[in-house]
Design goal:
The chain is built from 7 helices and 9 strands. A hairpin with a 3-residue loop joins strand 5 and strand 6. It is globular.
Length: 184
C-alpha cells in the first residue's frame, strides 16, 4: 500500500498549478476528484474537475460514509473526498494525493493519521492577494471571504508534516514531486 499525501494551502497559493506540473511528469499519480455542491465554473467538467452534486446527494454520501472528509468552504458550498477512490488507489500501490482545505485535513488526520500532510505557502501575503485578484474568478466580497479564510489557514501551518513555498515554480514542483514519490 502507498501512503496518502494530503495537500493543502490558502486560496490562490498555486496548489493546483503545482500538482498539475507534478502530474505531467508522473502520470501514475492518482489524484482524488472532489465532490462539491457549488456550480461548475466556465470550462469545468463533471467528473474531471469535480463531481458536481446536489445538496441532497451530498447528504446521502455523508449518511452512507461515502466521504473520507467533507467541509463547508468559505461558509458557502460543501466539498468532500469520495472514500472509494482513495482506498482503491492506495491498495493498488499508486501514489495518491488529496488537495483539500484545512477542515478536511483535520478530518483525514482522524481517519488516516499516517498520511503525509503537506502545506503550500505563498512567498508573501502580498503575493497571495495579488494572485487571488489576478484570477478574476471571484467578486470583491468572495475575495475578502477567501482572504479571511487564508489568514486562519496560514496560522495552522504547525499541523502539517512538510511545507512547500510556491515562490519559484520549478523549485516548488520539484519539492512536491519528491514528497509525493517518496510516500510510495
Amino acid at each position: 500500500m502507498s501512503r496518502l499525501v494530503v495537500l493543502a494551502g490558502p486560496t490562490a497559493v498555486g496548489k493546483g498549478t503545482l500538482l498539475r506540473a507534478v502530474l505531467d511528469r508522473n502520470p501514475d499519480i492518482w489524484v482524488s476528484v472532489s465532490a462539491t455542491t457549488r456550480p461548475a465554473r466556465p470550462g469545468e467538467q463533471d467528473g474531471i474537475h469535480y463531481h458536481f452534486v446536489s445538496d441532497e446527494r451530498f447528504d446521502e454520501l455523508i449518511e452512507q460514509d461515502g466521504l473520507l472528509e467533507w467541509a463547508t468552504v468559505h461558509g458557502k458550498h460543501r466539498y468532500g473526498t469520495p472514500r472509494a477512490g482513495v482506498d482503491e488507489a492506495l491498495q493498488a500501490g499508486r501514489p495518491a494525493v488529496l488537495e483539500i482545505d484545512l477542515d478536511g485535513v483535520r478530518q483525514v488526520k482522524q481517519t488516516m493519521p499516517d498520511a503525509l500532510f503537506v502545506f503550500v505557502l505563498p512567498p508573501s501575503w502580498e503575493e497571495l492577494v495579488s494572485r487571488l485578484e489576478g484570477r478574476g474568478t471571484e467578486d470583491e466580497a468572495e475575495r475578502m471571504r477567501r482572504l479571511a479564510t487564508a489568514r486562519d489557514e496560514l496560522m495552522a501551518i504547525d499541523e502539517f508534516d512538510e511545507t512547500v513555498i510556491n515562490d519559484d515554480l520549478d523549485t516548488a514542483v520539484a519539492e512536491l514531486e519528491r514528497l509525493i514519490t517518496q510516500a510510495r
